[in-house]
Design brief:
alpha/beta, five-stranded parallel beta sheet
Amino acid sequence: MAKKENGNRVRDALRAGAELPDPASSPVGPAKKAKGEEKLATAGERLSALQEALYAEGTAGGGRSVLLVLQGMDTSGKGGTVGHVLGLVNPMGVKYTAFKKPTPAERRHDFLWRVRRQLPAPGRIGVFDRSHYEDILVPRVSGLLTAAERRLRYKQINAFESELAEGGTTVVKVFLHISPEEQLKRLRARLQRPEKRWKFDPSDLEARSHWTAYQEAYADVLAKTSPDTAPWYVVPADRKWYRNWAVAELLIEVLTELAPQFPEPAYDVEEMLLALKGVGVVA
């Protein structure tokens, strides 16, 4: 039992509860930047090895995959997390999707249609930079969904994610929790640094003006869509180094529990080694 609890250490500490942690806190793991960056480098080696095994398993007919869902307010670090965490593994085994405002073609279908089209294939780690949860959060804050319509979407999402779990996809949902003070600093930095201005969108200011409404919407999402098969994890995101370490460790714990296996070769290894000795190089 002790071993199992240790294996779930980060997941247990960061699983969404009734209260959100301080966005600048360290609920588990390193408390200092230097130590966090050191641990991330080590975590990268473990994550890469596990991801390679999952990818190899998938190429041999395995049916399992992982889907990392990243949600958070603007500047919370969804893209940064992808670069610093998924950048540690072989990109061949990663499928990244950034969901934007639905197109007219996408609106002609139900809100999960475009999401289903981007699910990871067996052996892959899929990453959603924003996700199907935007189809509750944004219309709720904009007043475009009634309470009854929200309840229906919660039900549809829970059923959808249960379907994924039954089909072999482990869903890892992460809410990157940033403070309004830290967001202000990051938005200002984007405007003040020419090389960062491409990241700034005037619509970010509109979303910021509805900060409280978005926090209430996220609280509702965390409470209504966090079953044991696809729970939410809340990662304090004011400190980028901690955010990166925490997400990497979440993935490591999930993959360690999945224990992906390298497939056995369909040939005799010793026979191939002997045959290799007799194969020369033609000039």
